[in-house]
Design goal:
Blueprint: H1 3-19, E1 25-30, H2 38-45, H3 48-51, E2 55-60, H4 63-71, E3 77-78, H5 81-89, E4 94-101, E5 107-110, E6 123-127, H6 133-143, E7 153-157, H7 161-169, E8 175-178, H8 182-188, E9 192-196, E10 206-212, H9 213-218, H10 220-239, H11 241-252, H12 256-266, H13 278-292, H14 307-319
Helix pairs in contact: 2-10, 2-11, 4-5, 5-13, 10-14, 11-12
Length: about 325
């Protein structure tokens, strides 16, 4: 067999092997065991993946490693849309098929006596870093309240969530943004929630299904099965609060009261069907371009492809499926 024919044969065989013999075992790279992965936790816990004949493993990786694993076919899916969208700017061919969340899961926390965003005039704000997503989100969030950095407030690099909370508690900064569960921990020690990005009009997908576009051609059935089960997990989380909280407790290994508070805080940021409107897609792309400092404009379909999610949604509705 000629080398080129042999290579093509082995490549085809690899695709067939993935599509059939490995369909029962699917690996997805996730950024961490936190509430952004809620739909996956629920789908796994409720047996929705098993209903699709999928044995799903959630593997924790950083965004960079997740992209590498995805592009080298080590995993067929990741749940890190921000990293994937940034990779697309450098020539990757990745697509977001589904997203659990549309809005950022960050909360603006302040120390006493500050309780309102208007009271942050001339104050110091702690951010993770000057190239972090949190930095850009905070600037955009405050600009919608008529405040600009340097003029109305000062931004200070204060590290990860733990150090930022400590800086806030010890009066090194007057406010900072915190994710779950750090915002709840901040409230427990007397800090105040001055604003919720989960209730804002900012767009930041998370808890997504990301694939190489090639997979949509080579193994469309697997993509559809995985999306259908995950969408069921999202619907269950949206509609069955009392049954979802114990799943969060088990998945994150936290107490029920913290799981309940986390669920309630994150609920406004969830999508209703795993998709975004065209306007939200445009905003998400604009945010990625702005953070990357890119001047060219790119169409949303370079990053998003919700066709499968819309298809399975229509099928579930036609069948009258309920969680």
């Amino acid at each position: 067999m000629k080398p080129r024919l042999a290579a093509a044969w082995f490549f085809t065989l690899a695709l067939l092997t993935f599509s059939f013999s490995n369909a029962a075992n699917v690996r997805i790279a996730i950024p961490g065991y936190n509430i952004t992965q809620l739909a996956f936790f629920v789908a796994k816990d409720r047996g929705y993946y098993k209903e699709e004949n999928l044995d799903v493993d959630l593997i924790q990786m950083t965004g960079t490693l997740a992209n590498l694993a995805l592009m080298t076919s080590e995993v067929p899916f990741t749940s890190v849309p921000a990293a994937a969208m940034n990779a697309n700017l450098r020539g990757a061919n990745l697509r977001v098929l589904f997203s659990s969340y549309e809005r950022p899961l960050f909360w603006l926390m302040t120390r006493a006596p500050i309780r309102d965003i208007k009271e942050l005039q001339g104050k110091k704000m702690g951010v993770p870093g000057f190239n972090s997503a949190g930095y850009f989100l905070l600037r955009e969030y405050l600009s919608k309240h008529g405040m600009e950095p340097g003029k109305d407030y000062t931004l200070l690099q204060a590290g990860d969530s733990g150090p930022r909370l400590l800086a806030l508690q010890n009066n090194f900064v007057d406010a900072t943004i915190l994710p779950l569960p750090w915002n709840i921990m901040a409230q427990d020690i007397g800090m105040h929630e001055a604003g919720s990005m989960a209730k804002s009009d900012l767009i930041a997908p998370s808890g997504a299904i990301v694939v190489r576009e090639e997979l949509l051609r080579s193994a469309p059935a697997v993509a559809e099965q995985f999306t259908r089960a995950t969408l069921k997990g999202l619907h269950f989380a949206l509609q069955r609060r009392s049954a979802t909280i114990p799943i969060i407790t088990r998945s994150l290994k936290i107490k029920d009261d913290l799981a309940a508070k986390g669920y309630d805080a994150a609920l406004p940021a969830l999508t209703q069907d795993g998709t975004f409107s065209e306007e939200s897609q445009k905003k998400a792309v604009e945010a990625v371009l702005r953070i990357a400092g890119a001047k060219e404009s790119l169409p949303p379909d370079r990053f998003f492809n919700f066709a499968i999610t819309k298809k399975v949604t229509a099928e579930l509705q036609a069948k009258g499926w309920k969680p």
